[in-house]
Amino acid sequence: MNNAKRIGIIGGGFAGLTAGYRLADAGYQVSVYEAQPELGGQAATFPVEGNRLEIFYHHIFTSDQHIVALMGELGIADELQWIPSKMGYFHGGKVYDFVTPLDLLRFTPLSFVDRLRCGLLTLYLQRTADGERFRPVTATQWLRRMAGDRAYRVLFESPLRGKFGDQKDEVSMMWFWGKVRLRAGSRQAGMTKEVLGYPRGSFQIVTDALAAAIRARGGQVMTEAPVERIVAEGGRALGLRVAGQPDVARFDKIIATVPSPVFLQIAPELPEAYAARLRWVRYQTALCLVLKMTRSLSRIYWLNISDPQVPFVAAIEHTNYIPPENYGGYRLLYLSNYLARTHRYCAMSKKELLAEYTPALRRINPEFDPSWVLESWLFRDDAGQPIVTCDYAEHIPDHRTPVPDLYLANTTQIYPEDRGTNYSVRLGNQIAALVREDIARESAS
Ligand SMILES: Cc1cc2nc3c(=O)[nH]c(=O)nc-3n(C[C@H](O)[C@H](O)[C@H](O)COP(=O)(O)OP(=O)(O)OC[C@H]3O[C@@H](n4cnc5c(N)ncnc54)[C@H](O)[C@@H]3O)c2cc1C
C-alpha cells in the first residue's frame, strides 16, 4: 500500500536528489523537478576541456561522513580521491602557507606572542566538543577579545569576510567554532598536511549516480522543469504546477528543497508565524568568476585574502589541487565573493568584473597579465550563504510546514554546521525519514 504513495520533490540539488533516492529506494513513486538545465544546484558543473568543473569551487573534508557513506552506497566510493591541499594567506603583498601549526608559528605578520595566542586559541576551539557556549556571542567580539585586535584583523577577519562580506560582524561564534572543528578533522594525519576529498570527474559523478539510482527505482528526474506553484486544496498540499505542463502533477507528499524566498513565492498561503521565519533569514549572494588561464596565479589552492585592497575574498586555484592535465593543461582559478544582492559587482558582466579584479591579481602576482585568461565564466547564487546570527537557531523553520503534506528542507535548516554537500545529503536523509515516518503513522491510523 505504502509503495503506491507519490512524492514530488522540488529541486535537483544534493538535498532533493538524496531525499529522492532514499524514498525511491523505499518503494515510493518519486518525481524530482529541477528548474535548471543541469542537476546539482550549488554543486552543479559545466564542461571545461573535456572534463567537468563545479560552478562554485568544491571539496569535502574527511569529517564529511554522510556524503562519503552515500558514495559508498551508490558504488562510487573508489572515485573519491583524498588529496593534500595547499592553503595560504595573502597579507601585506605576500603569500604565506597556512596549513600546519608550524605555518602559524612562521607567520611573521603577527608578533610571536600573538602567534602563540592564536595557536592556543585554535587548539581550544578544536578541542571544545560542545559549542553551545559560543552561540550568544558574535565571532568578531569573541575573537577580538581572545586573540587581540591585530591578530583578529590579520587572521580571523578574512575567513569571516570571506563568507559573510559586510555582514561578518553579526555572525555567531558558534558558526566559527563549527568551521574550526570541521577543519581540524581534515588535519589529523600527523598534523603535517591537510587532505581534502574530490570525486574523480567532479561532483557531477555523485549527481549522476543519484539521478540514475532514482530512475533505476522507477522514479523520474526532470530538468528545465521549474515549479511555479505548490497547489493546495482544503488546506492540504496536493500537487505541483510546473512550467510548460498543462496539468497539475498530483502527489501524496511534497518536499521543497529550494531557498526560503523561492519557497515563499511558490508555496500556498502559509500561516504568518511560519512565513515570518522564512522571511527572517538573510542570505549573502555568492559571486564567482572562473578563469581558464595559461599560467598559474600562485602555488596555493585556497588563498584567503587578508588585504583591504583586494576586492574578492578568496582566490581558489582548482588546478593547484586537481592537476591541470585534467583540463587540457590549463589553470583554473575561482575568484570568490559573498556580497549583498544589491552590490554593484552583482550587476557587472564577467568582462567588467575581470577588469575590476585585475589590479588585485597583479598585486598577488606582479607578472599577471589579462592575456593569460583565455576563457571566463561568471556564476551567481542569491541564496549563497545564510547569515548565521546569534539568534539564528530561534528562527529556523520546521521541516514539517503548517500545510499538511508539505515539507521544507533547505540550507537555512543546516545548523550549527556550515552548509555543504555533506549536510545537504544529511538533510535529504532526514527529510526522507520524516516523510516515511508520517506515511507510516497515517497508514496505521
Ligand atoms: C560559493 C560556494 C562554494 C561552496 N563550496 C562547497 C564546498 O567546497 N564543499 C561543499 O561540500 N559544499 C560547498 N558549497 C555548498 C554546497 O554546494 C551546498 O550546500 C549544497 O550543494 C546545497 O544543496 P541543496 O540541495 O540543499 O540546495 P541547492 O543546491 O541550492 O539546490 C536547490 C535546487 O533547487 C532548484 N530550484 C530553485 N527553484 C526551483 C523551482 N521553482 N523549481 C524547481 N527547482 C528549483 C535550484 O536550481 C537548485 O538546483 C558551496 C556553495 C557555494 C555557494
CATH topology of the domain at 2-44 and 203-280 and 396-444: FAD/NAD(P)-binding domain
Distance linking N and C termini: 14 Å
**Low-confidence regions:** none
Mean pLDDT: 94
Structure, described:
The model has no long low-confidence stretch (mean pLDDT 94). It is built from 12 helices and 19 strands. Among the domains are: 2-44 and 203-280 and 396-444, FAD/NAD(P)-binding domain (3-Layer(bba) Sandwich), CATH 3.50.50.60; 100-192, protoporphyrinogen ix oxidase, domain 3 (Orthogonal Bundle). The longest helix has 24 residues, at 421-444. It starts with 5 loop residues before the first strand and ends with a helix. The protein has a 7-stranded mixed beta sheet, with helices on both faces. Strands 9-2-1-13-19 form a 5-stranded parallel beta sheet. Strands 10-11-12 form a 3-stranded antiparallel beta sheet, with no helix packed on it. Helix 1 links the parallel strand 1 and strand 2. It is globular, with a radius of gyration of 22 Å. 46% of the residues are buried. It has helices spanning 14-25, 65-73, 101-105, 112-127, 139-147, 149-164, 173-185, 204-216, 260-266, 272-280, 350-364, 421-444; strands spanning 6-10, 29-33, 45-48, 51-54, 80-85, 87-91, 94-97, 194-199, 220-222, 227-233, 236-242, 249-250, 253-256, 283-293, 302-306, 314-317, 331-339, 373-386, 406-408. With 445 residues, the protein is an alpha/beta fold. Helix 1 (14-25) runs parallel beside helix 8, helix 2 packs across helix 12 (421-444) and helix 5 (139-147) packs antiparallel against helix 6. Flavin-adenine dinucleotide (FAD) binds at residues 10-16, 33-36, 41-43, 56-60, 226-227, 257-258, 262, 266, 286, 288, 336, 381, 384, 410-411, 419-422, 424.
